[in-house]
Amino acid sequence: MLRCNEVTKTYGGLAALDGVTFSVERGEVFAIVGPNGAGKTTLFDTISGLAPATSGTITLEDVEIQRMAPNRICQLGLARLFQTSVSFSSQSVFTNVLVGSTFGRERGTRFRLRYPQESIDAALEALEVCDLYSKQELLAKQLPVIDLKRLMFASALATGASVLLLDEPFAGLNREERDELIELVRKINGTGVTVVMIEHIMKAVQALADRMLVLHHGQPIVEGRPAEVLSDPRVAEVYLGKSWSTKEDADAAGL
Ligand SMILES: Nc1ncnc2c1ncn2[C@@H]1O[C@H](COP(=O)(O)OP(=O)(O)OP(=O)(O)O)[C@@H](O)[C@H]1O
Ligand SMILES: [Mg+2]
Fold first, then answer.
1. CATH says 1-69+196-255 is which class?
2. What is the pLDDT of residue 195?
3. What whole-number distance in Å separates Cα of residue 246 and Cα of residue 230?
4. CA of 42, closest atom in ligand 1
5. Average pLDDT of the chain?
6. Which bound ligand lies closest to the C-alpha atom of 12?
7. What is residue 32's predicted lDDT score, i.e. its pLDDT?
8. How far is the CA of 122 from the centre of ligand 2 (A)?
């Protein structure tokens, strides 16, 4: 579904990404973890077209996207959520999602005075999936944190995305909210959407991910199923600078 091949991104003399290769299969939840500054967000910047890769190829369903503009990539079916929730705060929940379903779809960029019916239908469907249907008339600024997250998911889904990139979606949520979000990501994935998720909170990774990749200094170091990866001594080394022997060590690293 999504493949990065030898993706490199340099900023001046710094290689934020250095030969990153991995594939995500259709329908998977794929997690990307690694210490601060490992290059995780930069990887999303290159995939989503925000900061094009210096070299390497990125394919979305066999189409090379590494030189495409972000809006084009979105229209091809890849939507990205940023770590911070953003919205048109003085607009209704429904209008926010309509923007995604109108401009994020194929042929959706023409300026229109009226929203086409297919955009309205897609927005309502996304609101339903994200449990916001009954809140569609509220203003975005009236939403509590977890519903604002749901709004980001709904806006992304309304673009008709087949792949969602999530950058630390669980950051800043309390335990109850995390459980709600785990349910939502499962539900979205259950509709056939492939999920690629950067996450520091390992409970969420373990609950959701089919496979995961550990990045360190811009390089992929371990890839596999969560249980295998999290017990790999190289992963402990990256997080702690030593092998861990106790559960407290693992907890301290968020693992
Ligand atoms: N636009 C930029 N210009 C210059 N350097 C950048 C830019 N974006 C990222 N970097 C550098 O690239 C490296 C990787 O940063 P990145 O934000 O991708 O890390 P990360 O893994 O997402 O970290 P975190 O867990 O803190 O979010 C860092 O050294 C960062 O300073
Ligand atoms: Mg980051």
1. alpha beta
2. 98
3. 13
4. 18
5. 90
6. 1
7. 96
8. 30
Rounded CA-CA distance 32/12 in Å is 25
Residue in 11, 81, 165 to alter for ligand 1 test, most ligand atoms within 8 A of Cβ: 11
What single letter denotes the amino acid at residue 83? Q
Instruction: Tell me the two tokens of residue 235.
Output: 């992963």
Which ligand is located closest to the Cα atom of residue 9?
Answer: 1
231: amino acid identity, one letter: S
Residues of the chain with pLDDT below 50 are 244
- Domain borders along the chain are 1-69+196-255
User: Residues with beta carbon inside 6 Å of ligand 1?
Assistant: 11, 14, 16, 34, 36-42
pTM: 0.91
Q: Which amino acid is located at 244 in the chain?
A: W
